[in-house]
Amino acid sequence: MNEHLEKIASASHHDPFQFLGVHFDEDDNDLVTIRTFQPHAASVTLLSGGKEQPMTRSHEAGLFIVELDRQWFVDPNLDPYTYQFAIQYYSGFVQTINDPYRFLPQLEETDRYLFNFGTNYRLYDHLGAHQATLSNIAGTIFRVWAPSASAISIIGNFNGWDGRIHPMRSLGSSGIWELFLPGIVEGELYKYRIRTSDGAFLEKSDPVQFQGEVRPRTASIVNYLGGFQWNDSAWQEHKHQTSPYDKPISIYEFHPGSWKRDPSDPERFLTFVELADQLVPYVKELGFTHIELMPIMEHPLDESWGYQVTGPFSVTSRYGTPQEFMYFVDLCHQHAIGVILDWVPAHFPMDAHSLARFDGTALYEHEDPRKGAHPDWGTFIYNYGRREVSNYLIASALFWLDKYHIDGLRVDAVASMLYLDYSRKDGEWIPNCYGGRENLEAIEFTRHANSVIYDLHPNTLMIAEESTSFYGVSKPTSNGGLGFGFKWNMGWMNDILNYFAKEPIFRKYHHNSLTFSIMYAFSENFILPLSHDEVVHGKRSLLDKMPGDMWQKFANLRLLLMFMWTHPGKKLLFMGAEFGQWREWNCKQSLDWHLFDENEMHGQIHTFVADLNQFYTANPSLWEEDFSPEGFQWMDFEDRSNSIISFVRYAKNKNDHLVCILNFTPETYFDYKIGLPTGQKYGEVFCSDYSIYGGANTSEQNVFRPIAEPYAQAGFHTRLTIPPLACLILKPAG
Fold first, then answer.
1. pTM of this structure
2. What is the mean pLDDT of each run of 10 residues along the chain (734 residues)?
3. What is the spatial distance between Cα 584 and Cα 508, in angstroms, rounded to a whole number?
4. What gap in Å lies between CA 444 and CA 385, rounded to an integer?
């Protein structure tokens, strides 16, 4: 007994159930011994079936024992060993509790096996803190994976953060620890106190917490994710039946902490409810089909923008509760707006309260820093080759799709996952088993994750932020691809922003930047991003990147957006660009909404973006064949001297098409000869130069009759006026 007691008193017992709770005498089966460890109790009384029995303090450390004949418990209205403890503390306070150490293990062997095998895809239903009722007693069951721990306790306000009172039970070789705590309800704070194999103690947040404290505090919060009534069944049915590839997708990327702040208190974040009530109608008015949130998983440092995640299953408490985020998603869906989250399986921070050396060993990360530490970000890299870690991450992705009805995940920093030498010098990385630089474990994890996600949630938008030429990022795994649905087109983004930064007089020398992207436009399912990364760290805002005077800057921005919206590929635009934010994005303050009142051009470009999205969604030629060369045809890509290009976008029905003519100089070209694909009459249907958008209103807005004579890459041609720094769109006029 002394050995067990010593371990209990020092919070080092791997299976406290061997000692605490109900035990039968080996020699006399009718004799029952009940033990409880209550170091803060003056006295403890056993209660059962209306009976009371004082317990004996058998050790000054706080061990209380009672020995009874088993018949003492018999009551036809009760379970055989239903009992409680009435505890009187030294302060005089009396509390009646149920004993956590009288319940059998609850996690099924199959669930443990699947986790260790790497395929327990509903891991979030098993690990973490979950509502449970055992023997008609309500409480919370806690489970955590820490295979190298010698002991683990649950600590919280309910036990004075004393790691001796609620030690957990080890579930053997699974590495999972479990304890049911009667009476623990939603809202309770908790952590795990982990004793490592070398005797050190660590206090850790729950890796599968569903809610955490607001930074800088780091405790987990019990939240069962219940109590919300979803009203998005129509959206879910539509999503289930609708493939996204031949549909319009224009994404509004935003950061919840800096889109807008409380005007009366600029330091206060808006809650998810406040954001929903203000952002959803705003995005609906602008005509975007989707909202993409920068990471809203729990993270310790605002300046990381959410990309250093400490709680992959936890909505950050900066903006409210899980249920309030459900409200946000639900309201988006009721207004037919999809929701995409940034998801970060590439790395995690080194904060002591989180995953780093979780049980005293490199559990989630690699032991060797040449594989396990990221040199640029000061973070740890997940060990994708460990099945439980791979399972943990895949379950995290599925969790957001399942519990929060999320429509897509944009996977951050995929390139850093794929290459062992990413941002490393010679000697700072370890080749794979074939001597190559590819991270084979990460590649297998990515394929596994995408396969499972698409199997369980078929029309999810799985989007890779991948900046290299790695083969088949958005190709099916069955064809040797990574299995994503989409890939950010970083090449187009870099080329086009470099091009627009040039003074128009020099653009003719960089004409290939306009045309090169079509050479590879159909090699992947691309999304064209103008994201947050392009408007920070001295890169300037989109509007401020543009050369020229005020009028030319706005005209250039409209032209950039027109080129993006007419180019093959889905679209993504970061917040602020839709009204011409001058200042670089700063995660610590609101966007500059006051600009609307200072210059009408900000409101004009806002109107332009709304009209552009409306025009986009109304014309299948701009999205039905985004990923097929059948949807695109050059009319003229060789007019370098004038910096003009023209092309056709086709719908599946080739009769439904648009001719797009773009002038990248501030010159107006009169009587300009332009190619057309057919002999039909064409009429102007959209132009970025309209005065309502702040343009010069130079276009003729006539009906044009083609001449049956080839020109450039076209079979017909006509002549028209091309406005300065503008995109002009023609459509068959019947």
1. 0.95
2. 83 91 79 92 92 92 90 69 91 93 95 97 98 95 98 96 96 97 97 96 98 97 96 95 96 97 91 97 98 97 93 97 98 98 97 97 95 91 97 98 98 95 91 94 97 96 94 93 97 97 96 96 97 95 97 98 98 98 96 95 98 98 97 96 98 97 97 96 96 90 90 94 97 89
3. 28
4. 9
Contacts (Cβ under 8 Å, ≥6 apart) of 135 = 79, 82, 103
Angle (CA) 403-406-407 rounded to 5° is 145
Q: What values do phi and psi take at 531, rounded to 5?
A: -100, 180
d(CA 315, CA 517): 38
Give yes or no: 15 in active site.
no
292, 298, 412, 626: the catalytic one is 412
- Three-state secondary structure of 635-665: EEEEECCCCEEEEEEECCCCCCEEEEEEECC
For residues 696-713, b (16+ Cβ closer than 10 Å) or e, as one string? bebbeeeebebeeeebeb
Residue written as token pair 């199959």: 110
Helical ranges in 529-618 per DSSP H: 542-545, 550-566, 595-598, 600-618
Kindly state the DSSP code that residue 56 receives in the 8-state scheme.
E
What's the token pair of residue 686?
């959209």
Of 298, 365, 465, 689, catalytic: 465
Task: Give 352's DSSP letter.
Answer: T
**Residue-by-residue DSSP string for 197-230:** TTS-EEEE--TT-SBBPPTT---EE---S-S---
As given in the structure block, the two tokens for residue 450 are 């995408």
| Active site annotation includes 26 | no
Distance in angstroms (rounded) separating the CA atoms of residues 383 and 365: 5
Q: List the structure tokens of 721.
A: 């006026």
Q: Answer positive or negative: Cα dihedral of 459, 461, 466, 469.
A: positive
From the list 266, 268, 283, the residue with the least C-alpha distance to 328 is 283
CA distance 251 to 283: 10
**Residues 392, 395, 397, 400, CA torsion sign:** negative
Angle at 364 between CA 363 and CA 369, to 5 degrees: 90
Q: Can you tell me which residue has the tokens 């330091």? A: 267
Whole-angstrom Cα distance, residue 255 to residue 575? Answer: 8
72: helix, coil or strand?
Answer: helix
Residue among 52, 108, 122, 63 at smallest CA distance from 85: 52
**Radius of gyration (Cα) for the chain, nearest Å?**
31
Query: What DSSP element (H or E) covers 314?
Result: strand 311-315
Domains of the chain with bracketed CATH: 21-98 (2.60.40.10), 109-221 (2.60.40.10), 294-321+339-485 (3.20.20.80), 628-732 (2.60.40.1180)
Q: Are 196 and 150 in contact (CB under 8 A)?
A: yes
**Residue 666: which of 593, 721, 723, 614 has the closest Cα?**
723
Q: What is the pLDDT of residue 70?
A: 79
User: Which residue, among 302, 292, 349, 282, has the nearest Cα to 586 in the 3D structure?
Assistant: 302
Polymer length of the chain:
734
pLDDT in tens, 641-694: 999 999 999 999 999 999 999 999 999 999 999 999 999 999 999 999 999 999
> Would you state the structure tokens that stand for residue 312, as one six-digit string?
């992959």
